[in-house]
């Protein structure tokens, strides 16, 4: 329990303990003379609202600032409700992408005293100064005022030793994005702006000297300005060690030779690239204002896979306007053929303020009213199909993205990966009734049943591949394939579902 006093408490709920609140550290670093009377405390969404409220109130704060995101808005609503019930005199200030697009805001904004949209480093400091001086502004919704990046105090000194040992260390060399992809809030940015490069590298060196070896860059377009990308990569290459790991989000169709040359110099497993493909459908790309050279994208992913040791994490989105199961299947099959290490299958979510919302009525985009506002159906994808793709994505994570079935997966996918894996997904759900809490040993047994009975793969052949994967997984207790009953005869639900799908 906190015993120190703080006039200002900055807080949020992270999805996991290993995550860190990068935005709050920026607010803290730029409080100037108020920093000495402020504290930053982080929680996770798994913690109880009442316990969080107690810990926050123990600081006896006058101001509590919450950073609100799509993944924590429900929990923060509960906490703010409690705090206003117990200590209504405390001023609650909200910021973050979930509350920054008035009048399209969640109900937690009704409970708050002030809501800041956009950049908050300057605006939060000025508002706090006013409130602590008993000069309460009348305007509740405040447009954040941007600060030139060369005038911001960078927050990296606020990562403490516990953060360095246990959390992801987020860094950014630039802010903003010049592209206008409508599903992304970065479409609202006017351009991308870089931090002064040498100052940034000085901060990176200080982190490296303190023992940071895992740097997660949150730049939306790390390889936008190639000369800067190369300089940053050279900086880390000079400090390369067995445990250094760098994560970048890259534009898939921009990989000039100068960048390729330095990427080839990095050892295997030292780089991870997050590559947002989203869709290969050119009509959908045009509809959502996404500029992407699909030929270059395919060429670059193939080159990265063949010529570097980088881990390739690629993204697809299902449920975009005019999307269909066939369109999505085509994008998926194209991406599987490029053999990235991971394919993250995202279901479209409604982001407040995103330009994509202009398509809600014309394309029948029907979203869950509860966070995280996942799409439920469109005029081209019904709810049942959306649920099937949700399960497909979950099983894909368990089987493909986990890396546990490297030997078995090619046999599962065959020459039509999407259709085969959809068949597998439907069947696994028929047999297990769940996409969660399936023990790994049980998953091996279910895969044996489906691949032999539904796919007609020779039992000895699939057992040989499963055995290799099982040995790598290190699970105790061998699956007893011989004792498994024939499940085709008992899974009546599965048969019914297959008949239903055949008429869909």
TrEMBL record:
Which InterPro entries would you find in this protein's record?
BchE-like, Cobalamin-bd, Cobalamin-bd_sf, DUF4080, Elp3/MiaA/NifB-like_rSAM, Methyltransferase_Class_B, rSAM, rSAM_horseshoe
One Pfam entry for this protein is: Radical_SAM
Gene3D superfamilies in the cross-refs: Cobalamin-binding domain, tm_1862 like domain
> What are the names of the required cofactors?
[4Fe-4S] cluster
Q: Which UniProt keywords apply?
A: Iron, Iron-sulfur, Metal-binding, S-adenosyl-L-methionine
Radical SAM core domain segment(s): 163-393
Q: What is this protein called?
A: Uncharacterized protein
Please tell me the species this chain comes from. marine sediment metagenome
């Amino acid at each position: 329990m906190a015993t120190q006093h703080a006039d200002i408490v900055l807080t949020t709920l992270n999805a996991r303990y290993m995550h860190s609140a990068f935005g709050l550290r920026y607010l803290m670093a730029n409080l100037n003379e108020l920093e000495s009377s402020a504290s930053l405390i982080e929680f996770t969404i798994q913690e109880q609202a009442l316990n969080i409220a107690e810990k926050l109130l123990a600081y006896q704060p006058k101001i509590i600032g919450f950073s609100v995101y799509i993944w924590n808005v429900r929990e923060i609503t509960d906490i703010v409700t409690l705090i206003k019930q117990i200590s209504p005199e405390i001023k609650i200030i909200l910021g973050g992408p979930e509350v920054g697009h008035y009048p399209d805001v969640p109900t937690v904004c009704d409970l708050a005293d002030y809501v800041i949209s956009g950049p908050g480093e300057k605006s939060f400091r000025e508002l706090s100064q006013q409130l602590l001086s008993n000069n309460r502004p009348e305007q509740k919704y405040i447009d954040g005022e941007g600060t030139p990046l060369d005038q911001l105090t960078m927050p990296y000194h606020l990562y403490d030793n516990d953060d360095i040992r246990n959390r992801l260390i987020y860094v950014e060399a630039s802010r903003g994005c010049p592209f206008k992809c409508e599903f992304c809030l970065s479409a609202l940015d006017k351009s991308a702006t870089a931090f002064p490069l040498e100052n940034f590298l000085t901060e990176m060196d200080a982190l490296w000297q303190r023992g940071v070896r895992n740097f997660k860059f949150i730049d939306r377009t790390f390889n936008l300005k190639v000369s800067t990308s190369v300089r940053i990569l050279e900086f880390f290459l000079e400090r390369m060690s067995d445990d250094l790991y760098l994560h970048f989000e890259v534009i898939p169709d921009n990989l000039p030779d100068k960048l390729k040359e330095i990427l080839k110099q990095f050892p295997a497993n030292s780089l991870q690239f997050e590559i947002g493909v989203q869709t290969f459908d050119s009509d959908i790309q045009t509809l959502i204002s996404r500029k992407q050279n699909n030929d270059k994208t395919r060429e670059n992913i193939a080159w990265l896979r063949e010529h570097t040791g980088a881990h390739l994490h690629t993204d697809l989105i299902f449920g975009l306007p005019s999307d269909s199961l066939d369109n999505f299947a085509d994008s998926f099959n194209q991406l599987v053929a490029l053999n990235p290490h991971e394919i993250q299958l995202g279901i479209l979510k409604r982001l407040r303020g995103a330009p994509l919302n202009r398509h809600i009525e014309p394309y029948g985009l029907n979203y869950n009213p509860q966070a995280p506002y996942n799409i439920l159906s469109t005029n081209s994808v019904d709810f049942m199909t959306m649920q099937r793709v949700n399960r497909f994505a979950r099983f894909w994570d368990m089987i493909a993205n986990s890396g546990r079935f490297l030997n078995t997966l090619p046999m599962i996918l065959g020459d039509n990966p999407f259709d085969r894996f959809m068949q597998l997904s439907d069947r696994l759900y028929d047999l297990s009734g769940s996409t969660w809490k399936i023990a790994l040993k049980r998953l091996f047994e279910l895969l044996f049943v489906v691949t032999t009975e539904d796919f007609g793969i020779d039992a000895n052949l699939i057992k040989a591949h499963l055995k290799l994967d099982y040995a790598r997984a290190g699970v105790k207790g061998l699956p007893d394939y011989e004792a498994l009953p024939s499940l085709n005869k008992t899974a009546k639900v599965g048969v019914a579902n297959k008949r239903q799908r055949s008429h869909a």
